[in-house]
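Protein 1 of 2
SEQ + STRUCT:
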Amino acid sequence: MPAHDDPFAALAPMEALFDALPDVVFFIKDHHGRYVTVNQTLADRCAVGDKTRLLGKRPSEVFPAVLAASYARQDEAVLKTGKPVEHQLELHIYPGGKAGWCLTTKHPLRDRQGRILGVTGVSRDLNAPGDKATGFAELAAALRFMQARFAEGLRIEDIATRAGLSVHQFEQRVKKLFQMSPLQLLHKLRLDEATRLLRQTDLSLGEIALQTGWCDQSAFTRHFSRYTGMSPGKFRVLQTQD
């Protein structure tokens, strides 16, 4: 294939740009799900800073099994359907075993004939904005309400009303500040507390479900697995092993 038709070669110069972003992971994978290009952040977190140790490897050779399986399924879906993954809220385990949240976007890479040759993606760490961030003040009361009452059956409409905004206005402001929807933010608050309880207590999954706002253990497990790529029980075992 001519070099100018190679999407990997075309995107490779972006690697240097993403190297300058310490809170963003950037990668390109081939149609087998193997890393072709990675930025320095991913290398620092998974390969002691050496990019070459990641190239040619699949997620199963880099991440804990439960997380790797989730990432691989996501890659396979993009490769098979050609549909992108947009701003997916996910759990990552960082060096030292610390759990954190990111938003992941993945797109298929195609040649000039439209054939899918690989996947490119970014995962951006989610850091809560500082109190001085533009637009934070008008949301402060509503956000404090969410933080204090996330275990209850909150409705986005009611939270928006507390901010004195329409649902649309509230959604736009939350997305601008947090890079996620209000519902994703609410789920994140619940799951943050759930991961803490899984790490630090011996509460049953049913008890944790009720304490973090899910109607039952089944709903809790379903949402936890969707966002983290593993069941709550597997997460607890993983943290114990670390």
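Protein 2 of 2
SEQ + STRUCT:
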Amino acid sequence: MPLNSISPIDGRYEKYTESLVPYFSESASMKYKILTECEYLIALSETKNIGTRKFSEKEKVLLRNLYQKFSSKDAELISDFELRGYKNIKATNHDFKAIEYYLKEKLVNTSLNDILEFVHFGLTSEDASNIAYALMISESVKNVYLPAIENVLNKIVKLARENKNIPMLSRTHGQPASPTTFGKEFKIFEERLKRQINQLKNQKISAKLNGATGNYNALYIAYPDIDWMEFSKKLIKKIGSQRNINLEVNLYTTQIEPHDSYIELFDILKRINYIVINFNQDLWRYISDGWIGQRPVEGEIGSSTMPHKINPWFLENSEGNLGMANALFEFFARKFPISRLQRDLSDSTVLRNIGTTFAHSLIGFSYLNNQLGRIIVNKEETLKDLNDHPEVITEAIQTILRREGVKMPYEKLKELTRGKVVTLSDIHKFIETLEISEKVKKELLKITPENYTGLASKLASR
């Protein structure tokens, strides 16, 4: 564990977030921008009537190796260009110009040295940056976020199936209510997550390549006979296809792609996180009530002073991390759609924190998975608490009495039970006093808190 990290996502929680390094580290950001620049160069070479010559297959491999084999040494060289200077070039203090100089440095002693000035030709840094972020976000969702949340989902699915028939006391407003089953309550979260995951899989990120103010000014002035709108559409689609990502082209932008598609995606991630927070809180309460037990792990300590404790801190930590992620997602929703006039730079540092939200989400899912791996439903305690509240079947009794035409059954049962402690025997005595047929009395006497669960088991099984 790195002990000098300021952020816990790179320190205490590093083992949970290292899978995001290939997508959201500074080095990864450089790699994805180089990818865009190299594919842009190749696209220029494949377009007739542009000053670049056609590249050989070997030259295309050379260009693609620049991002496919990108290393920490390459990242350090780009950092030199930006912060310290390199050879006869002084420090740029501009992250993207450093990438341009890096690419020229890598190509100057190759067969591509004759096309060096077509590196970043007619573009603004945001052209490559926004495509890079579109890929970083899309690929991290596909390769890291989705597998993580689907792992959570699969565990919830298993809990729903295994506990579909175990009756439990419901609580509405925190008070005893009509019984349900554990399986059906888990099933609710299964279905909620499935809905959001399906939307997530269909969400597309938008990208653009259209110059300094979105009008293809420099490209058009240099080569007015080229259909630059079609060129940008084909290039963005091709880059997405190469990475097995479905990118959506935005032709109408200022200098920056307005990030609206980011917000749409982040809203889905935020909803997923809130659903998991809700699940954490319910599971925490079931553990608190003793309805769900926790398996002890040898060597672990629950409290520094109370030896008996097995605290559900995995759930609490999960909730905290998901809350951190959502706080940033909510800020993103306020920040990203706004950029002064044709561009300001206030989104730049915010974009660099997208990985932070993914990291906190991932930590939240990991801690929940840790908890789910050590719980078991306590059937005995659950049934005991359920049977301690026979008043929950009064809904069933008054409904059947209404069916039979008995006057004011709700009010009669309210008088019997509201604000009082009653037993099943008390309710049975009440039933015997009713002026109804013996058949209906037998029907009512068969109702217990354990069997008054409606279609809960069937719902959990669907």
